[in-house]
Amino acid sequence: MAAQLTPAVLGYTPPDPPIEEFTPPRDRAFFADPKKSALFEGATAVEEVTPYIGTELKGLQLSKLSDAQKDELALLVAERGVVFLRNQDITLEQQHALADYYGVQDKDPIQENPKHVTVVGREGNIRGHDFFGADYHGDHSHEINPPSYTLLRMIRTPPSGGDTIYTSQTALFDKLSPRFQKMFEGLHATHQSELSYMNAINHGARPHRAPVATAHPLVRTHPVTKLKSLNYNPTFISRINELNAEESNHILLFLREHLHSADDLTVRWRWTPGAIAFWDNRIVVHRAVPGGYDTTLREGKRICVFGERPFFDAEGSESLSERKARLAGEGTNGTNGVKVNGTNGSATNGEKGHMS
Ligand SMILES: [Fe+2]
Fold first, then answer.
1. In the list 195, 214, 236, 304, which could disulfide-bond 147, CB 3.0-4.6 Å?
2. Which UniProt keywords apply (predicted)?
3. How far apart are the CA of 35 and the centre of ligand 1, in A?
């Protein structure tokens, strides 16, 4: 029994009331120097892990960042989707303080400690009916104010296994045909926590709040970068509201395939003890790869901060390709380092290369 109605679910009463909508403090990325000079000058290396998503910062300790560097880090995360750092000495208390700097700490409906979620390993029949939560998701996107930034620090990791995969929803939107982009803009999807709620209770957890269902735009605007992204979440979305039932079912299946086949828009992060991933839930979906390793060897601490209520601003935002074309027309280099126009590769001796 996992995400099903059971006597345990029916007999359970959550203690807390629903969360009301609120306006979070201004995103720290708005305060950053767009060049991110303080952050980059403090690092020994700044490496793009893939063209579309993921940057690794080397030679920096999050525990010692200045406020200017913290703001620039938020902007880098907003631009690159996820930023990685290894061998961090930050303590749990310092991690709490860092999250406080970025906003109001969010509380996952099933987290036990009031200030963080303990992330562990998962195994079992990950392809079975009763294994809930192995798919991509943005953390608790069913809230009215879903998280903006998430900071996950891994304390212990197995020698292999338990990687986390991140995919750029900004790039997923950009890779849709213009027809599909236009069709999806303005639609809303229902994000609901009912399955997660039932699954938690059936595994002995005690959720704080009753399940919720919230309509969010299927295409959203990032408040800082003003880029359009998909706001798709296969774990929590149950329907697309403006479509008929079968239309909705098939479009959701298409979106699932669009996401799951997007290797080019994805980064797979192999954890080591003390490594940190800092990502923007508004533009990234992620999944921890379960199974195949000793789950007692995986433990991390995750902290989120509340984001704004997702919105779509048709006039005030653009796709990645539109951004790239506009900046090229203005003779300006983009700040997000994203390469949009691909060319076929050639070997250095002029032969046509094979990609494998
Ligand atoms: Fe997650």
1. 304
2. Dioxygenase, Iron, Metal-binding, Oxidoreductase
3. 30
Cβ atoms within 10 Å, residue 67: 11
Around ion ligand 1, residues with a beta carbon closer than 5 Å are: 139
Segment-wise mean pLDDT, segments of 10 residues, the chain, 356 residues: 89 92 96 98 98 98 98 98 98 96 86 81 87 89 96 96 97 98 98 93 90 97 98 97 98 98 98 98 96 95 96 97 95 52 51 62
pLDDT at 181: 98
Q: How far is the CA of 148 from the centre of ligand 1 (A)?
A: 12
CATH of the domain at 307: 3.60.130.10
Distance, CA 210 to ligand 1 centroid (Å)?
Answer: 19
CA 127–ligand 1 middle distance (angstroms): 18
Determine the distance separating the centroid of ligand 1 and the alpha carbon of 138, expressed in angstroms: 6
Look up residue 70 and give its two tokens.
């913290």
Q: Residue 342 domain-assigned?
A: no
Asked if residue 10 is part of any domain, the answer here is no
Domain annotation covers residue 343: no
Which whole-number Å values give the CA distances from 134 to 128, 268, 337, in the listed order? Answer: 10, 15, 31
Number of domains present in the structure of the chain = 1
Q: How far is the CA of 301 from the centre of ligand 1 (A)?
A: 11
